[in-house]
Amino acid sequence: MSTASTAAAAHSQATPQVRPRHRKIYWRRHAIHAAGAALLFLALLPVLWLVLMSFRPNADVLGAGLLFVPTLDNYRALGGGGFPDSFIHSLLASTGSTVLSLVIGVPAAYALARYRFRANKQIAMWILVTRMAPPIAFTIPFFLAFTWLGLMDTVSGLILIYLTFNLAMVVWTMKSFFDAVPRSLEEAAWIDGAGVWQAFVRVTLPLAAPGLAATGILCFILSWNDFFFALILTRTDAMTAPVAIVNFMQYAGWEWGKIAAAGVVVLLPVLVFTFFVRSYLVRGLMAGGVKE
Amino acid sequence: MTAATWSAEQRRAFTIGLAPALIVLAAVTLGPAIYLVATSLTPLTPLTPGSGLDFSTPLANYSQALFDSSFVHSVGLQLELSAITVGLQTLVGLGLALLLNIESRFMEAVRTGFLVPMVLPPIVVAIIWKVLYTPNISPLYAALGALGISAGSLVTDPTWALPALAVADTWEWFPFTLLMVLAALQMMPKEPLEAARIDGANAWQMFWYVRLPFIRPALTVAVLFRLIDSIKAFPLIYIITNGGPGQATEVTNYYAFIQTFNFAYWGYGSAIATMMVGGVFILSLIVARLGGTQAVGE
Fold first, then answer.
1. Count: domains in chain B
2. What confidence tens digit (pLDDT) does each residue in B57-109 have?
3. Which of A5, A6, A112, A132 is most worth mutating to test chain B (most B CB atoms within 10 A of its CB)?
4. Contact between chains at B115 and A129 (C-beta distance less than 8 A)
5. 3-state secondary structure chain B
C-alpha cells in the first residue's frame, strides 16, 4: 500500500499534465462522497420507515404522514404478552450456542492452523458444505430426533441445531486468525517447557483476542437472526423473538404498531454488534469464500 | 525431551484439540445427513406407524418427484428467482462498488452503513417489505397515489409476485457483492490503472480490460455464494406471499417445507431436501475449486 502510493506520488511529479487534473479530482471526490451518502440514505429508507412506524400513535399507525406525536405505546404493549420471554429465549439460545461453538471450535481451528493433518482438505470441504447446506435438510432429521429425545421446544435443542452453522463458522474464521499469528512466539514458549495447549492459552490466544471477539459476535448474530429452525423446532416454551413477531400477525390480527416495535427491538442488538465487528463481518459471512 | 518424542507429543496434542469439534460436527451434520437420505427412501409420515422403516420401494419418492408437476414447477420458479435476484444483486453491487471506490474515512462509514440490510434479522427484512408491498399501509403506494398513479398489489399478482420477492431479496443482499468487490478493488495495485490511463484508455476500457480481470475471482465467488443462498430464501416468502398467489412463489425450498410440515409427507420432503443438498454440494465443489477451501485446507 505505502509503496504503491509513493510510487504513484513519484509518478505524478514526473508527469507535467497531472497538475491541472488536480482540481477535477478534488471535485470528483466530493461528488462521489455525496452520491455515496445519498445512495446509502435511499437504501436505508425502508428500515427508517419501520422505526418511524414503531413510534406512531395507534390511530395513525398506517399513516404515511411524517408529522405525528411520537409515542412509546407500541413498545409498552410488547411488555404484556409472551414477547419478553421470547426475547430471553433468543438471548439464551444465541449465547449458549456461541459459547459452546467457541469452546469446541477454537482448539480445532488452532490445530488445523498449526498441524498438517492428512485429511485437511476433506475437513475443509465438509465445513464448506455445512455452511452451504439448506436448513430444511437439517430440520427434517432434527425434528424427528428432537421428538424422540424430548428436545422439541427447548432452548437446549436450539443451541444444538445452531451448532450446525456456528461450529463451521468458528473453525473457518478462527483458523485464518491463527494463521496470522507468528509461530515463533509459541515456539519460544515450547522451548521454555510449556506444552502445546499451555502455549496456546498463554501466548497465541491473547494475540488472537480481537478475532475471537469478532467470531463470537458473528456467531451470536447468526443465531439471533435465525427464523426457520426456531419456527419449526419451538412452540411456546422456547419460542424465540423472531417467531414471536410472526404471532403478532397470526393470532391477534395485524398489530402493525407492535410488529414494528418488536422488529426494532430485535434488530437493535444486531446493529450494535455489527458496528463492533464491521471490518470482520464480510470475511465471516463469506466463511472462507476467498483465498487468503 | 528428544525431537522425536516432542513431535509425537505435538501430534497427540493437536489431535486431541481437533477431535471434539469433528465429533460434534459429525453428530450435528453427518448423522442428520445420513438420517435424511435414509428417510428419503421411505414413505415416512407420522400418520402411518412404521412407515419410517419401510424400505420396500426405496426410490418411490424420487420417481414421484419427476412426475409431480408442482415439484417441477417449483424448480422452474427457483431458477427464475435465483436468476433475477443474483443478476440484480451482481449488477447493483458491482455498479455501486465501482462508483464508491475511493478510500476515505467518510467512505468507510458509508460502507459500514451498507452492511445494515444484510445483517438485519431476515424476519425484520420480511416485515419491512411486507409493509412496502401492502398497498393500504405502504409509503410507496402512498407516494404513487399522491402522484395520481394507482397501482395494484404486486405480491397478489401471479406474474409479479416472484419478481417482487426478488427485489426484496436483492435489497437484502446486494451489499454482499458490493463489499466483496470493493475489497477486491482496493487491493488492486495502482500501476496498471496508471499505465492504462497514460495509454489513453477510456472509462469503459479501464473497467473491462483492467479492473474486471482483477476483481473477477472475488465477483465469481460472490455470485456463487449468493446463488447458493438464494436457494434457501425462506422468511421473505413465508411472510409476504406464503407461496402464493396459487403456487406462484412456491420455490423448491418452500415446496419441501410445505410437503413436510404442512402435509406431513416426511419421506417425500426428505427426498426433495436430499436433491437440494446434492445441488448445493456441486455448487460448493465449484466454490472450493475456485479457492474456497484454501483457507482451511492448505
1. 1
2. 788 889 888 888 899 999 999 999 999 999 999 999 999 999 888 888 888 88
3. A132
4. no
5. CCHHHHHHHHHHHHHHHHHHHHHHHHHHHHHHHHHHHHHHCCCCCCCCCCHHHCCCCCCHHHHHHHHCHHHHHHHHHHHHHHHHHHHHHHHHHHHHHHHCCCCCHHHHHHHHHHCHHHHCCHHHHHHHHHHHHCCCCCHHHHHHHHCCCCCCCCCCCCCCHHHHHHHHHHHHHHHHHHHHHHHHHHCCCHHHHHHHHHCCCCHHHHHHHHHHHHHHHHHHHHHHHHHHHHCCCCHHHHHHCCCCCCCCCCCHHHHHHHHHHHCCCHHHHHHHHHHHHHHHHHHHHHHHHCCCCHHHHC
| pLDDT one-digit tens code per residue, B184-242 | 888 888 888 889 888 888 888 888 888 888 888 888 888 888 898 899 889 999 999 98
Please, what sign has the CA dihedral across residues B213, B295, A142, A106? negative
Question: What architecture (CATH level 2) is domain A76-286?
Answer: Orthogonal Bundle (1.10)
pLDDT digits (tens, 9 = 90+) for A191-233: 888 888 888 988 889 888 888 988 999 899 999 999 999 999 9
Domain coordinates in residue numbering, chain A:
2-54, 76-286
Q: Which residues 138-157 of B are in CB contact (within 8 Å) with A?
A: 139, 142-143
Is position B128 within any domain?
yes
CB contacts under 8 A, B 155-214 vs A, are: 171, 176, 179-180, 183, 189-191, 194, 198
Q: Does ipTM top 0.90?
A: no
Domain holding B106: CATH number? 1.10.3720.10
Q: Using the beta-carbon criterion (under 8 Å), do A263 and B127 form an inter-chain contact?
A: yes
Q: Which three cell numbers stand for residue A129?
A: 458444505
Asked whether residue B84 is domain-assigned, the answer is: yes
Partners of B136 on chain A (C-beta within 8 Å) are: 62
Query: Is position B16 within any domain?
Result: no
- Give yes or no for B129 touching A (CB within 8 A): yes
Which residue reads 471434539 in cell numbers?
B20
Distance CA A247, CA A144 (A): 24
For B:59-78, CB contacts with A below 8 A are none
Distance CA B46, CA A147 (A): 11
From B164's Cα to the closest Cα of chain A, the distance in A is 15
Instruction: Compute chain A's Rg from CA coordinates.
Output: 25
Contact B102 A29 (CB under 8 A): yes
What is the number of other CB atoms lying within 10 angstroms of the CB of residue A11?
15
Searching chain B, which residue's CA lies closest to the CA of residue A217?
B119
Residue A17, SS3 per DSSP: coil
Task: Please check whether residue B124 lies inside any domain of the structure.
Answer: yes
Across the A:B interface, residue pairs with CB atoms under 8 Å apart total 297
B32 interfacial to chain A (CB closer than 8 Å): yes
| CA–CA gap between residue A100 and residue A156 (Å, rounded) | 11
Give the nearest chain A residue to B180 (CA atoms): A282
- With CA atoms as reference, the chain A residue closest to B102 would be A29
Domain holding B113, by residue range, is: 73-264
